[in-house]
Amino acid sequence: MGNRLSRIYTRTGDDGSTGLGDGSRVGKDSPRVNAYGTVDELNSTIGMLLAADGVDDEVREALTQVQHDLFDLGGELCIPGMALVEDSDIERLERILDSLNEPLPPLKEFILPGGGMAAACGHLARTVCRRAERAVITLSRTEQIRTQPQRYLNRLSDLLFVISRVLARASGHGEVLWQHERRRKPSAT
């Protein structure tokens, strides 16, 4: 990294624009800024998950690597034409996903977000991940974007779902199942 920040504020964004990694300037509300900003938000929610009690070493190691990947993914989105996320990153997520999902019982009901603080943080990260994926798709409708960022986020949201299941079960709270039968059929009047 060539430049280090000695001052945090520059005032260059006071007009509602921001600089991309290639030196060009765009509006802070542009689809590109929205996409990499949402990836940054996702990285922060994973940081919250890692700060929660009850995250075992296997999950902690996987999520720490994910945070590094997300920083790369954000860089790829911030620098038009850059390629930082690779197919091997997606394949690694799939291996971790398969490993964590294999011992879990099959799903028979929908799961509500919850199951302890760590699991709830995992579900929050999953929903932010889906939003980041949608932002990348929106960006790809107007600008050339490689498929790897979208595929990475799609697989990561699946991984975060499985991690939330693992954490809920390990916490002793268990998974919170949607009770679809709680609604009674309307009575005929």
Automatic annotation (TrEMBL):
Keywords: ATP-binding, Cobalamin biosynthesis, Nucleotide-binding, Transferase
Catalytic activity as recorded in UniProt: 2 cob(II)alamin + reduced [electron-transfer flavoprotein] + 2 ATP = 2 adenosylcob(III)alamin + 2 triphosphate + oxidized [electron-transfer flavoprotein] + 3 H(+); 2 cob(II)yrinate a,c diamide + reduced [electron-transfer flavoprotein] + 2 ATP = 2 adenosylcob(III)yrinate a,c-diamide + 2 triphosphate + oxidized [electron-transfer flavoprotein] + 3 H(+)
Pathway the protein acts in: Cofactor biosynthesis; adenosylcobalamin biosynthesis; adenosylcobalamin from cob(II)yrinate a,c-diamide: step 2/7
GO biological process, one term: cobalamin biosynthetic process
Domain Cobalamin adenosyltransferase-like: 8-166
Membrane spanning residue stretches: none
GO molecular function, one term: ATP binding
Spans annotated as Disordered: 1-32
EC assignment: 2.5.1.17
Matching Pfam families: Cob_adeno_trans
EC class of the enzyme, as a word: transferase
Tagged with keyword Transferase: yes
Quaternary structure and interacting proteins, as annotated: Homotrimer.
PANTHER family in the record: CORRINOID ADENOSYLTRANSFERASE, CORRINOID ADENOSYLTRANSFERASE MMAB
Family of the protein in this entry: Belongs to the Cob(I)alamin adenosyltransferase family.
Protein name: Corrinoid adenosyltransferase
Species of origin: Rhodanobacter denitrificans
